[in-house]
Specification:
alpha/beta
Length: 198
């Protein structure tokens, strides 16, 4: 059973993220994070590694591009018992990411506002988040993905107890993750369809 050593936390909804990060820190998990989430965790006095320090590249284009990078996706998608993948990680100095905690830009909430513009709506279409969530969910044999803050305690308790999560928990969380991104995309396509028919 592989222990969870590195986690990537990047959340729009920051409910419970500080308490969860504290529990991860207590188990010795290294935390990597993006802009707003990183500041929230840092402000709570929890050590956190900025994603740009992992990628060697700054967040650019108003945050549109920050996690779309081989140091992130290679770390998430590597098959841990595939010798070629392991070798490629060594060659390219890619550190595995064992836990991805991510929820998405508030698109549904944005379009619910009065007089929201198409431009505002578009800026709340998350790209890096769904890519990370889907990558982690695809690789659930090795990676735990959490999209719902109500799952934080359960996941933290498993890590505190065993250093990792069970295969069944990872599969359940992967199913939830794919449902999360599917519903998100469905909301976006319905909104765009409405704009077309106006």
């Amino acid at each position: 059973m592989m222990k969870i050593k590195r986690a990537l936390l990047s959340v729009s909804d920051k409910t419970g993220i500080v308490a969860f990060a504290k529990k991860l820190q207590a188990t010795g998990v290294e935390i990597v994070s993006t802009g707003g989430t990183m500041r929230t965790i840092q402000d709570a006095g929890i050590p956190v590694l900025y994603v740009s320090d992992v990628t060697g590249f700054p967040e650019i284009m108003d945050g549109r591009v920050k996690t779309l990078n081989p140091y992130i996706h290679g770390g998430i998608l590597a098959v841990r018992d595939n010798p070629e993948h392991v070798q490629q990680m060594k060659e390219h100095k890619i550190t595995p990411i064992d836990l991805v905690v991510c929820n998405l830009y508030p698109f549904r909430e944005t379009i619910a506002k009065e007089n929201v513009t198409l431009s505002e709506a578009i800026e709340n279409i998350d790209i890096g988040g769904p890519a990370m969530i889907r990558a982690a969910a695809k690789n659930f044999r090795y990676v735990t993905v959490v999209t719902n803050p109500s799952r934080y305690d359960e996941v933290a308790d498993a890590i505190l107890k065993d250093g990792t999560t069970s295969g069944m928990m990872r599969m359940e969380l992967a199913q939830e993750a794919f449902q999360h991104t599917a519903e998100y995309d469905d909301c976006i396509q319905k909104y765009l369809k409405e704009q077309i028919s106006k």
